[in-house]
Amino acid sequence: MGTVIAIISGKGGVGKTTTTANLGLGIAQAGKKCVIVDFDIGQRNLDMVIGLENRVVYDMVQVMEGECSVPQAIIKSKVSDNLHFLAASQTKDKSVLSSEKVESLLETLKQSYEFVLLDAPAGIESGFEHTIEFADAAIIVVNPEVSSIRDADRAIGILDAKSQKVKKGQEVEKSLIINRISAEMVRAGEMLRSEDILDILNIKLLGKVPEDKGVIDASNQGKPVILNKKSLAGQAYARIAKRICGQEVPLEDIENMQEGMFKKLAGIFK
Amino acid sequence: MKNRQFSVKVLEIHIENEEETHAFLQKHHLLFKDHLLSLHGILSERLEAYLKEQGYLFVHNQTLPQGRSKKALVEEVQEQVQQPLQEAYEQLQAQLQATCVEHAVELQALNDELRLLRQRVNTKFTVLDKMVRSGQELKIEGDLLLLNRVNSGATISTTGNLIITQVVEGALRCDGAFMMITVSPKANIVFHGVEVDNALLENKLNRIELKENEIHITPVIKKEINWEQS
Questions:
Q1: ipTM surpassing 0.85, yes or no?
Q2: Is residue B45 part of a domain?
Q3: Cβ-based contacts under 8 A for chains A and B
Q4: Same domain, B149 and B200
Q5: How many Å lie between the alpha carbon of A153 and the closest alpha carbon of chain B?
Q6: Among A residues 143-182, those touching chain B with beta carbons less than 8 Å apart
């Protein structure tokens, strides 16, 4: 029986889709079977980020409507055999989703995959609610800025109120990824510090991802940044994926890592 | 000693006119000759001489003892005996009344105290240790003690007192007697319909209360002094 993890943020543009693609690939590379599902009905883009846009034949809505079977709609990644993908519908909108359909789809996926990652839409409407409704865990992606934190806070509040697991008296495991940290800005005091964010949101920290210009290029090319072993963001995603798979990977001090190179050298000569 | 009790007949006359009295006595001489005359007013020499001449026994301007009936005497004796009793009774009654009033006042005070205590017990008091996240709204009847953060975009309103021990970044609406809030530069605090200036909440723990229609802010725990900086 697999684990359903919803990747949410509240605010748009903080890197949910990039995170989903990279973590999916990271989990697959760590040797676990993983499927990533785009829940952003009507505005799909996960297919592009993982470079599978020309392979989409059937989408999630068609599976739920019974037009095709789950295996028919699932697309296998070119990069890793362990990574599979289920696309969102680009023509329909989120009103086609219903709780029963989402539940039965997720039950089916849980039978064959260890991890089911759901890429939630931005905002907190019905599409978001359906994404979190049957999730066993949630990863909240934030940027170190106040608007992102507040929206994430709101999303967590809704998660705690609407999740089926919470309604049954269990707890949805929530963990935080702080994305796009700019070390210089944090040091200059222009960006929120990770400790402050954790204070406000009060959830477990899963990992920090530094700002990396390579991410945009990687997404444009359909090759998630995790494939670039030199990229700091890619390395960070790989560490997070391992943590999700249950491995003990110590947290890297992103804020002081980039400073590293030169300052460390300078330190040696002091 | 021998004694006898006599009943003497007395005629009392108030002399207003000498002639008239003289005429009256002459006319009724037979009727009153054995009476004792008790005269009041001016007794002229002529009239006195006449009375002596006729052998009248008389007194002038004297108050004679009044004979009373047995019943009246008994009443008088009873009254004499009863008066101190009555006085003692009245005194006791007054004392009793005073004690009663004292007790009533005491009872009233106790009742008031009891009512206050009952009110305090009946007032709902809520203790919460959960984060209030953005978009969440807590409406509390009565008092609230919150041991966790109030995040930006959250709202808490209470009809009673409000104490929050952590940072507040959301909105607070309080209609109780007082609030206790930590340093909260981002909070939006409305106390009894009046917005509280965040700059006034400079201490580690501040008490906001309503006194005579004015909002008072007093420090509960003062600012921490940082010795390193100074």
A1: no
A2: yes
A3: 34
A4: yes
A5: 5
A6: 146, 149-151, 153-154, 156-158, 160
Place of tokens 């809704």: A158
The phi and psi torsions of A259 (rounded to 5 degrees) equal -55, -40
pLDDT digits (tens, 9 = 90+) for B162-183: 999 999 999 999 988 899 999 8
- B194–chain A nearest CA distance, Å: 26
Q: Is B188 in a helix, a strand, or coil?
A: strand
Quick one: which of B209, B151, B160 has its CA closest to B180?
B209
Task: Give the nearest chain A residue to B134 (CA atoms).
Answer: A154
Domain CATH code at residue B142 = 2.160.20.70
Please count the structural domains in chain B. 3
According to the model, what pLDDT value does residue A258 have? 52
Q: Which residue has the higher pLDDT, B59 or A139?
A: A139
Rounded to a whole number of angstroms, the distance from the CA of A160 to the nearest CA of chain B is 10
Flag whether B230 is in a domain. no
Residue B33: CB atoms within 10 Å: 12
Q: Do B114 and B97 have their domain in common?
A: yes
Q: Do A157 and B152 touch (CB under 8 A)?
A: no
Residues in A closer than 8 angstroms to B135, CB to CB, are 124, 153-154, 157-158
pLDDT digits (tens, 9 = 90+) for B121-142: 677 889 999 999 999 999 998 8
What is the C-alpha to C-alpha distance for residues A9 and A217, in angstroms, rounded to an integer? 22
With tokens 């008092």, the residue in question is B143
Position B2 in a domain:
no
**pTM summary value:** 0.70
Q: Do B169 and A200 touch (CB under 8 A)?
A: yes
What 3 state SS string does B34-60 have? Answer: CCEEEEEECCCHHHHHHHHHHCCEEEE
- Residue A68, CA atoms < 13 Å, CB-side half-sphere: 13
